[in-house]
Design brief:
Elements lengths: L4 E5 L6 E9 L5 H6 L12 E7 L5 E10 L10 E8 L1 H11 L5 E3 L4 H8 L5 H12 L3 H11 L2 H25 L7 H22 L4 H7 L1 E7 L5 H9 L17 E7 L2 E7 L9 H16 L2 E7 L9 H6 L4 E6 L6 H9 L3 E2 L8 H18 L8 H15 L7 H19 L5 H8 L7
Parallel strand pairs: 1-6, 7-9, 7-10, 10-11, 11-12
Antiparallel strand pairs: 1-2, 2-5, 3-4, 4-5, 8-9
Helix pairs in contact: 4-5, 6-7, 6-15, 7-14, 14-15
């Protein structure tokens, strides 16, 4: 990280009411000296100033609201200036052009403001990634869990484990340095109990399946059934638009088609699949194979049954593999009598008519209940990144190998590797090899 002052447009480039520019670095306040009429010698931090903006050649640019944040009380921990101007393309371009002409100023790289905040101990990596998730959030639940991570929920959990492991390591290192001293039985027992408790906590944390990742990427709900059972019609009804082709011709849907939706704050990806049937047609056969694969990987399966000609045998293979995530849905209720509908409902089927949009709200409610119940059961801090999961699996293996009956040096190495692994998640050790990957996903002004 160089010592130049960085700047960027923090709002979207284009026509808007307001555009916000962020400048961070030891010379940040120089931009006000060059581009405004504000007396920087008497400027009060965190006070809003209304000022004319002019170029380095005194050409008028705009009127703007300016705020100065003095280090270390700023987002990055450095001196920061924020300029809120009008949001026309001409104004934005002219301000950026003039900032580029100030000595030792340069355009920020993607995520560089947050990267500097990390280096200046304003946030750890989990909080930084929570910020990235908040920026990308499209649903209320994504927003809620991103804010929880930004507040340090994961950081506190992981730092707690790491702190305890460092304590264990300090005892082992002390014994290695002073081998004439004995590890008393009560110390050995305390060390083993500490490692056991941490290992148990990590195992429980990992047992959440992938709900955190699913919250980011969307819960997979796959619709399967025979041709012409109404899968595409159901998907169009759920999406409130003609998202996929509906036809009476069997085999119209050949591939899996994804539609992204927001179900009561949860991101859900509904997938329409090829109809399940015996066929020798090569392309359709491949589509049916894809349907089975998608169903097996799904979080929830809607097994759609044609009410006119119900056939449950088609779901035998799926039901044997995915017992607890199949919802049986009887479609075309408008074509069967009320007694049949009542009998199917008593047997546990969800009764709908995709064509007439009947029973759809009840179906959505059941889907929402299934997803939300998983979060109620896993209300603790969620693993939101695959890299967290991979590292924690390695940490668990290191702790599982810990045993004070073997060489004390090897036992200490197990603890050292585990503590170092947790440090890779939070950034408490040298992790330059993963920083660019993390912060590179941020937008330029963040």
């Amino acid at each position: 990280m160089d010592d130049k002052t960085i700047y960027a447009l923090s709002t979207v480039f284009g026509k808007s009411g307001v555009a916000v520019f962020r400048i961070s670095g030891k010379n940040a306040i120089e931009c006000l000296k060059k581009l405004s009429d504000i007396d920087i010698k008497n400027i009060v931090p965190r006070h809003a100033y209304f000022s004319k903006l002019h170029g380095v050649d005194n050409t008028p640019l705009d009127h703007a609201v300016v705020i100065y944040f003095q280090a270390p009380q700023s987002f990055t921990g450095e001196d920061v200036v924020e300029i809120s101007s009008h949001g026309s393309k001409a104004v934005i371009s002219s301000i950026l052009a003039n900032l580029s002409q100030i000595q030792n100023f340069r355009l920020a790289e993607p995520g560089e403001f947050s990267k500097r905040a990390f280096y200046n101990n304003k946030m750890d990596l989990t909080e930084a990634e929570g910020l990235a998730d908040l920026i990308d959030a499209e649903t209320s639940e994504q927003q809620k869990y991103a804010l929880r991570q930004m507040s340090g929920e994961l950081k506190d959990l992981y730092d707690g484990w790491r702190t305890e492991l460092v304590k264990v390591l300090s005892y082992l290192e002390a014994y290695i340095d002073f081998p004439d001293e004995e590890l008393h039985d009560n110390i050995v027992l305390n060390l083993e109990n500490t490692v056991f408790k941490i290992k148990k906590s990590i195992k429980q944390h990992l047992s959440q399946s992938n709900y955190g990742e699913r919250l980011k990427d969307g819960f997979r709900v796959v619709i399967i059934g025979e041709p012409n059972s109404g899968k595409s019609s159901l998907l169009n009804t759920l999406a409130h638009r003609d998202a996929v082709i509906v036809s009476d011709i069997a085999g119209t849907t050949r591939d899996a088609i994804d539609i992204h939706m927001d179900i009561n704050g949860y991101p859900v990806v509904f997938t329409d699949t090829a109809g399940l049937r015996q066929t020798n047609e090569t392309i359709e056969k491949k589509g049916i194979e894809i349907a089975y694969d998608r169903a097996k990987d799904a979080d929830l399966i809607l097994a759609l049954i044609d009410g006119k000609d119900p056939n449950l045998k088609q779901f035998d293979e799926i039901a044997s593999v995915c017992k607890n995530k199949v919802i049986y849905v009887l479609n075309k209720s408008d074509l069967i009598d009320e007694k049949q509908c009542s009998d199917y409902k008593k047997s546990g089927y969800v009764i709908i008519s995709a064509k007439n949009k009947q029973g759809i709200d009840a179906l959505i409610s059941i889907i929402n209940k299934h997803i939300s119940s998983e979060f109620t059961q896993n209300s603790s801090a969620l693993i939101t990144r695959q890299r967290y999961r991979e590292i924690l699996n390695d940490v668990f293996k290191d702790l599982d190998g810990f045993n004070l009956t073997k060489s004390i040096e090897l036992a200490a190495e197990d603890i050292r590797l585990a503590a170092r692994g947790i440090g890779k998640i939070t950034g408490h050790i040298e992790v330059d090899e993963i920083l660019d990957k993390i912060f590179g996903s941020f937008c330029i002004g963040k």
